[in-house]
Amino acid sequence: MTAIELRGVTKEFPSVTAVSDLDLTVEEGEVYGFLGPNGAGKSTTIDMVLDLVRPTEGTVTVLGRDATADSVAIRRRTGVLPDGFSVYDRLSGRRHVEFAIESKEADAEADPVLERVGLLEDADRKAGGYSKGMRQRLALAMALVGEPDLLILDEPSSGLDPAGVKDMREIVAAEAARGATVFFSSHVLAQVEAVCDRVGILREGELVAEDSIEGLREAVGDGETLEVAVDDATDAVVDAVRAVEGVSRVEADGAMLRVSCDPGVKTRVIAAAEDAGAVVDDFHTEEASLEDLFLAYTEGEAAPTGREDAATGEVDA
Ligand SMILES: Nc1ncnc2c1ncn2[C@@H]1O[C@H](COP(=O)(O)OP(=O)(O)OP(=O)(O)O)[C@@H](O)[C@H]1O
């Protein structure tokens, strides 16, 4: 069974098409990162999965059920951490979790889940006095109630300090290990890289890439940057390196050369620099960061070749 399946889903608002003919499949047990720039249609997609918004066209199936017809049953097996969660100021943290237990009719106690998110000591305080990070931990606690089959986390690390981000990452890993599916939308790309098996990148309502991070790196192609520390990055050295086959770009910053090149031409780059009179002190390669990949897929003409294949999921990981 797939956890989330969208087929030909379009959502038109009066002035904008937020999601356009979207096909998306999230397998059971998968941690799926959902990325895209502002306004790409991520929240609208999540809202359709949760039946808060109805598609103009297409079908949404969640945990094997129709998202519209069976929304109550789906909600009972789904934990949601919404973007911009607001607390009931006068209720305690514990009361919030109890409320989640009651509304899901879960056979669960509040304290273990409060402890899991690090809020047990503050559980009896009014949530109105919680810090932003504490509110986010509370939202996560409510999402975790009743061991849901599907966790939908919209910007889960928002407002969390580094310790909170680490806790959240460990909780996502533990939930996945227990067999839950996690659908994770985020702008914090390092988070996505750390926890997700696969990512989908949405752009103007369409899925422009879907693969493992590794697969996306390969699809982008020239994902490698070689940093070479030399005694003196003269014009002659830069020109010699630029002339090496497989080098697409060279930047000189003081005594540091940054070389964008195909994998496998490293040795020739170093040799060319030395032949041109440079003394190479040190070198190392950097893989394309997720930021680089994200920009490559979402910014205008810079979209990489292979994107069309990636969009149909045909790029091998
Ligand atoms: N209720 C609505 N009425 C009209 N337009 C809407 C509505 N909800 C969303 N939109 C529009 O649909 C498009 C997609 O918005 P959406 O909130 O889904 O994007 P997003 O990827 O979640 O963005 P962000 O990262 O900024 O939260 C935007 O152009 C937005 O203005």
UniProtKB/TrEMBL annotation:
GO MF, one annotated term: ATP hydrolysis activity
Keyword ATP-binding: yes
Keyword Transport: yes
PROSITE patterns linked: ABC_TRANSPORTER_1 (PS00211), ABC_TRANSPORTER_2 (PS50893)
Descriptive protein name: Copper ABC transporter ATP-binding protein
Keywords noted in UniProt: ATP-binding, Nucleotide-binding, Transport
Protein's organism: Halorubrum halodurans
Domain ABC transporter: 4-229
Pfam family, one: ABC_tran
PANTHER family in the cross-refs: ABC TRANSPORTER, ATP-BINDING PROTEIN
InterPro entries the UniProt entry points to: AAA+_ATPase, ABC_transporter-like_ATP-bd, ABC_transporter-like_CS, P-loop_NTPase
Stated family: Belongs to the ABC transporter superfamily.
